[in-house]
C-alpha cells in the first residue's frame, strides 16, 4: 500500500514555533513565536517594522532559499530555533524641512540653502 501523504507538507507536531531572524549587516538577532499555519508575511512585516527596514527591499533567506510571504512554517518544515537570515537596507530618518529652508537654483542644478 502506498502512503499518499506528502512528507513535504506534513506539519510539525507543535502548533507554535520559535524562529530567530538574524540581520546580516549587524548580526542582530530577534526571536519570534508564531503559529505554524500563519503566513510568513506577518513575521516579515513585524520584523521590518521593529527594526525600521523597508519591507519591499528586505530579503529573507531560510536554508539558502528566499522566503515568499505566502509560505508558512509548516510548509517549510521549520522547527524550534530555526534561523532566518535577513538582507536589506535600513530606512534613515531625515529632518523635516522647515519654512526657512528653500531651494535656490544655481545654473542647471539645485542646491539646498538654509
Automatic annotation (TrEMBL):
Q: Which domain of life is it from?
A: Eukaryota
| InterPro entries hit by this protein | Rad60/SUMO-like_dom, Ubiquitin-like_domsf
One of its Pfam families is Rad60-SLD
Q: Which Gene3D superfamilies match?
A: Phosphatidylinositol 3-kinase Catalytic Subunit, Chain A, domain 1
Name all Rad60/SUMO-like domain ranges.
33-84
User: Record's PANTHER family?
Assistant: SMALL UBIQUITIN-RELATED MODIFIER
- Protein name, please? Rad60/SUMO-like domain-containing protein
Give the organism the record lists. Arabis nemorensis
Amino acid at each position: 500500500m502506498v502512503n499518499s501523504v506528502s512528507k513535504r507538507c506534513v506539519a510539525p507536531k507543535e502548533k507554535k514555533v520559535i524562529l530567530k531572524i538574524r540581520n546580516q549587516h549587524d548580526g542582530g538577532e530577534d526571536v519570534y513565536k508564531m503559529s505554524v499555519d500563519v503566513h510568513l508575511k506577518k513575521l516579515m512585516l513585524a520584523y521590518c517594522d521593529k527594526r525600521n527596514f523597508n519591507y519591499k527591499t528586505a530579503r529573507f533567506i531560510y536554508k539558502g532559499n528566499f522566503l515568499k510571504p505566502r509560505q508558512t512554517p509548516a510548509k517549510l518544515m521549520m522547527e524550534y530555533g530555526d534561523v532566518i537570515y535577513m538582507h536589506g537596507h535600513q530606512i534613515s530618518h531625515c529632518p523635516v524641512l522647515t519654512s526657512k529652508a528653500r531651494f535656490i537654483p544655481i545654473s542647471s542644478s539645485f542646491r539646498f540653502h538654509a
